[in-house]
C-alpha cells in the first residue's frame, strides 16, 4: 500500500501523486498556472471521466520538512490528467476500476501516450497521467465544417485521410491491439501548422482495448460506431463477442465516411476511390473487409493516380471521361471491388444524429 505524500504547500499547487517508474516509485506534483482552476484547464470528457491540462514538476524529499517539495527552479512538463468519477454511477464502479487498470496497462506501452497511474487519488477520484497531445478532437473539427466555420482543402483532407490510416497501423495494429472504441471523439488532429510533418494525428482512450486473439469478452464500445456483427450479437442477447481487427476497420470506415460527407465542396461522391475505400471497410461481412495494410496500399496507389489525372485535366492534356476512374487498367486495387453491394445499412445519414455526446 502506498503511503500518501504530504507536501509543503506552494503557490499554484493543487495535487500530489505517486507513479511507478521502471524500478521504484517516483514522486511528482501537479501544478496549475497561478489563478487557474482545474475546470479552466478542461480539455475534454468521456463516459467515465474528464481530461485536464496540468504541469508535472519533479519533487525532492526534504527531511527538515518531513515531506516532498517542488525542486528549486525545476521546469514543469505539460501533461494530460484524466480523472475518473466513481460517484457518477455506483453500479459502474467496478467497470471504471477495470478500465483504469486496462488503460494504464495498455497506455504505458504506447510511445505516444506513456500513461502512468496515479497512486494517490485526487479529490477522491482515481486518475491517469499521460503525454499532452497537440490538436483537437475530430468531433469538433467535423462540427465546425458542418456549421461552415471551417473549410479544409481537398489536399488537406487527403493528407488527414492518409494519416488516419497510418495512425491506426502504428498506434493499434503494430501494437497487437484491437481498440474497440474508434470514433471522432477519440481522435486528436493537430492542424495549426504550415509544416505537414508537424500536423499530427493521435488516437486516445485505450480503456476498452484488448490484445489480438483474446478470448471472447464483454461487448463494449459506442453503439453508433459498432460493426453490424456486434450490433446483431447485442440484439440476440449475447453479452460476449470474439473481436477481431475487422471490428476496428469498420469503425474507422465510418469515421472516414463522416469526414468525407460533412463537407459539400469536397464530398465522398466526387472522389470514387475514397468511396470504394469506405464501401470495403464497412462491408457487412467482416471476413470481406480489407486489412489496414491493404487499405493503405489501395489509398496510396489510387491517390497517386487520382493526382496525376487531376493535374492532366487542369492542364487540358487529358480528355478522358472522369466518370469511371477504377475501370482503367492502371488502377492498382489490392482490395476486392464489390459489385452491386450497398454500403452497410448502419451508415450514418445525418452528422448530428450520430455524433452526440
Amino acid at each position: 500500500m502506498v503511503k500518501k505524500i504530504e507536501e509543503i504547500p506552494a503557490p499554484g499547487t493543487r495535487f500530489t501523486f505517486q507513479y511507478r517508474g521502471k524500478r521504484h516509485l517516483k514522486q511528482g506534483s501537479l501544478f496549475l498556472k497561478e489563478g487557474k482552476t482545474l475546470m479552466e484547464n478542461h480539455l475534454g470528457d468521456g463516459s467515465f471521466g474528464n481530461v485536464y491540462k496540468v504541469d508535472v514538476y519533479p519533487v525532492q524529499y526534504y527531511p527538515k520538512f518531513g515531506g516532498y517539495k517542488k525542486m528549486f527552479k525545476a521546469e514543469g512538463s505539460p501533461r494530460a490528467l484524466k480523472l475518473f468519477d466513481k460517484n457518477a454511477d455506483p453500479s459502474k464502479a467496478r467497470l471504471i476500476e477495470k478500465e483504469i487498470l486496462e488503460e494504464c496497462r495498455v497506455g504505458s506501452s504506447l510511445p505516444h501516450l506513456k500513461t502512468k497511474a496515479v497512486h494517490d487519488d485526487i479529490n477522491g477520484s482515481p486518475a491517469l497521467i499521460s503525454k499532452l497531445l497537440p490538436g483537437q478532437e475530430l468531433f469538433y473539427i467535423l462540427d465546425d465544417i458542418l456549421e461552415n466555420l471551417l473549410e479544409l482543402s481537398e489536399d488537406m483532407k487527403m493528407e488527414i485521410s492518409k494519416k488516419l490510416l497510418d495512425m491506426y497501423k502504428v498506434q493499434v495494429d503494430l501494437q497487437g491491439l484491437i481498440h474497440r472504441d474508434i470514433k471522432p471523439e477519440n481522435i486528436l488532429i493537430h492542424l495549426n501548422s504550415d509544416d505537414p510533418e508537424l500536423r499530427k494525428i493521435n488516437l486516445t482512450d485505450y480503456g476498452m482495448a484488448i490484445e489480438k486473439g483474446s478470448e471472447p469478452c464483454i461487448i463494449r464500445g459506442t453503439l453508433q460506431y459498432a460493426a453490424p456483427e456486434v450490433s446483431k450479437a447485442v440484439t440476440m442477447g449475447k453479452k460476449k463477442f470474439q473481436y477481431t481487427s475487422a471490428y476496428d476497420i469498420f469503425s474507422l470506415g465510418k469515421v472516414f465516411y463522416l469526414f468525407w460527407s460533412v463537407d459539400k465542396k469536397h464530398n465522398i461522391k466526387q472522389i470514387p476511390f475514397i468511396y470504394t475505400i469506405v464501401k470495403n471497410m464497412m462491408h457487412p461481412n467482416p471476413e470481406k473487409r480489407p486489412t489496414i495494410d491493404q487499405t493503405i496500399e489501395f489509398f496510396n496507389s489510387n491517390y497517386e493516380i487520382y493526382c496525376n489525372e487531376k493535374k492532366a485535366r487542369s492542364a487540358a492534356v487529358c480528355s478522358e471521361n472522369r466518370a469511371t476512374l477504377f475501370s482503367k487498367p492502371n488502377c492498382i486495387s489490392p482490395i476486392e471491388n464489390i459489385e452491386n453491394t450497398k454500403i452497410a445499412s448502419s451508415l450514418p445519414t445525418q452528422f448530428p444524429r450520430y455524433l452526440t455526446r
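The longest helix spans residues 292-314. Residues 1-27, 321-357 have pLDDT under 50 and may be disordered.
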